[in-house]
UniProtKB/TrEMBL annotation:
Its cofactor is pyridoxal 5'-phosphate. It holds the Pfam family Alliinase_C. One of its GO terms (molecular function) is transaminase activity. This is Transaminase. One of its GO terms (biological process) is amino acid metabolic process. Keywords: Aminotransferase, Membrane, Pyridoxal phosphate, Transferase, Transmembrane, Transmembrane helix. InterPro entries: Alliinase_C, Alliinase_N_sf, Ethylene_sulfur-biosynth, PyrdxlP-dep_Trfase, PyrdxlP-dep_Trfase_major, PyrdxlP-dep_Trfase_small. Belongs to the alliinase family. Residues 80-437 form the Alliinase C-terminal domain. The keyword 4Fe-4S does not apply. The chain crosses the membrane at residues 21-39.
Length: 442
């Protein structure tokens, strides 16, 4: 995969980097910036945040402060290419034993969970936890929907394509999404060179007649924007990828009620390693086809993972429902929102220090869940290199920062996608280096 090449090259380059020498003065600057960042920890203010967001729990603040004592040597590779949500480890560490799950040897032996259900491998406790959390947050309707569990929403994406693709077409049905789009869509859609579907690129440029499938990703990966269907033509079928429709990333403005909606714990709770996603599907026949795909490809979805996911989702609901009685720990979405707002504040400050980079700005809205008014706090930064830099990923790579080239996301190499969900230490190192670059190369 080309992205891997970029990343490996980035690792290799660290020793021979021609920029390494010129980075020496950066180290001195780096110390200064580090001290500034440290002092700013408690004085940051985000115009997109309301007063509530500033009341971060002391214990949680301490974590951020202690990790800011990182000094950048300018050489350590900072890999922010993948959306690996390790940021969330801090919160789950605080929560401790509450999420511990014990699975006994005799448990979960059967392939089946409830053979009478459309999705016969859906664990009842996982189903209950999903419904409960959507009710607590108010981000999706679950009444009248079939829930289908998947090995991550990546598998559900494939299953939904399978379920929607007509089997009687002479040509594969075309699949589109508005650019910039999640770079895995084209890869997954065309991976097996299926006769059922094929990737057709940017939905905003799609002008063919006939049936098509459009993926509506809202908030969008990479830029965090709120999305609506783009093509709007007869014969179109929609899959809503709502991986980021959670209140730490975007204001919840309505309970989503689309025909097919995909969610994942990877981006909601951070437990990407459990590989659990779910689809809310209105139409029973489509839900059955999605289930069939899972049956044929993996004969269901790990019950162990569903059990763990159910526990984590329930703990999140508890943290909000029993607010104030949760061992002094902030409710999950409050903590995560505060942390995302803090990260975005740091990033915008670093970008505003000079003229090298820019970030998109999207309108604010009031969140029906939290009552806060704010703009998107995207899981990725969609950074543009201004001035004469044509290949932003290459440019950052020269400073040992590895990110995803915008051309993989249906856009241009002037843009890069940067994960905002990595560990705090790495994020702070990144902010320091970006600030130094931006002030040094003014
Ligand atoms: C928009 C979007 N959908 C789906 C996924 C995949 O999620 P999962 O880990 O559940 O397969 C990602 C992961 O980055 C994503 O950004």
């Amino acid at each position: 995969m080309k992205t891997n090449k970029v990343q490996n090259h980035c690792h290799k380059q660290q020793k021979k980097n021609p920029m390494a020498l010129s980075m020496k003065p950066f180290i001195v600057l780096s110390v200064a910036v580090n001290v500034m960042l440290f002092m700013k920890q408690f004085s940051w203010s985000n115009e997109q945040m309301d007063e509530n967001a500033k009341g971060v729990h002391l214990k949680e603040e301490k974590m951020r402060v202690s990790s800011s004592a990182v000094i950048d040597d300018g050489k350590t590779p900072i890999v922010l290419d993948h959306g690996d949500p390790t940021m969330y480890e801090e919160y789950w560490h605080l929560v401790g034993e509450k999420t511990t799950v014990v699975i006994h040897g005799q448990q979960g032996i059967s392939y089946f969970s409830d053979a009478s259900k459309v999705c016969w491998f859906l664990e009842p406790q996982f189903e209950r936890a999903v419904i409960r959390l959507h009710k607590v947050v108010g981000n999706a309707i679950t009444e009248g929907y079939h829930i289908v569990v998947g090995t991550g929403s990546s598998q559900l994406y494939q299953a939904a394509l399978y379920a929607l693709s007509p089997s009687d077409l002479l040509e594969p049905i075309e699949v589109v999404s508005e650019a910039p789009f999640y770079s895995s869509y084209p890869l997954i859609t065309d991976f097996l060179k299926s006769g059922l579907h094929r990737w057709a690129g940017d939905a905003s440029k799609y002008d063919k007649d006939g049936p098509y499938i459009e993926i509506v990703t809202s908030p969008n990966n990479p830029d965090g924007s709120t999305r609506q269907p783009m093509v709007n033509r007869s014969g179109g079928m929609l899959i809503y990828d709502l991986a980021y429709y959670w209140p730490q990333y975007t204001p919840i403005t309505y309970p989503a009620n689309h025909d097919i909606m995909l969610f994942t714990i990877s981006k909601c709770t951070g437990h990407a390693g459990s590989r659990i996603g779910w689809a809310l599907v209105k139409d029973e026949a489509i839900a059955r086809k999605i289930t069939k795909y899972m049956e044929i490809s993996t004969i269901g979805v790990s019950k162990d993972s569903q059990t763990r996911a159910a526990k984590v989702l329930d703990v999140i609901s508890d943290s909000h429902v029993h607010k104030g009685n949760f061992d002094g720990i902030s409710p999950f979405f409050d903590h995560s929102y505060d942390h995302m707002a803090w990260r975005w504040q740091q990033l915008r400050e670093a970008v505003n220090k000079g003229k090298l980079f820019s970030l998109p700005v999207f309108p604010s809205a009031t969140c029906t869940f939290s009552g806060r008014t704010f703009g998107p706090l995207s899981a990725f930064a969609w950074l543009k290199c201004e001035s004469e830099v044509e290949n932003c990923a290459e440019f950052l790579k020269q400073h040992n920062i590895c990110v995803r080239d915008g051309s993989f996301l249906g856009s241009s190499s002037k843009f890069v996608r940067i994960s905002m969900l990595d560990k705090t230490e790495k994020f702070e190192l990144f902010i320091q280096r970006l600030s130094i670059m931006n002030t040094a190369i003014a």
